[in-house]
Write a structure and sequence with these properties.
The chain is an alpha+beta fold. The protein contains 1 helix and 3 strands, in the order E-E-E-H. Strand 2 and strand 3 form a beta hairpin. The chain starts with a strand and ends in a 16-residue tail after the last helix.
Length: about 55
């Protein structure tokens, strides 16, 4: 599963690509940093794009 979206509602909510939601205690920024580090460590960063980069006008 990949992370589709990270939001604060005020709880940090991670929405996965299969639309499942996870609620975590870490901040939105912490989750983003951890996910980025993980994706870099397994070599996926070149294949990922930020949500909203394409197909939105």
């Amino acid at each position: 599963m990949f992370i589709e979206r990270i939001e604060s509602f005020p709880d940090t909510t991670i929405t996965l690509t299969n639309q499942k939601k996870l609620f975590v205690k870490e901040s939105e920024q912490e989750v983003s940093q951890i996910a980025t580090q993980f994706y870099q460590s397994i070599g996926l960063m070149p294949f990922l794009r930020e949500t909203g980069d394409q197909n939105e006008s």
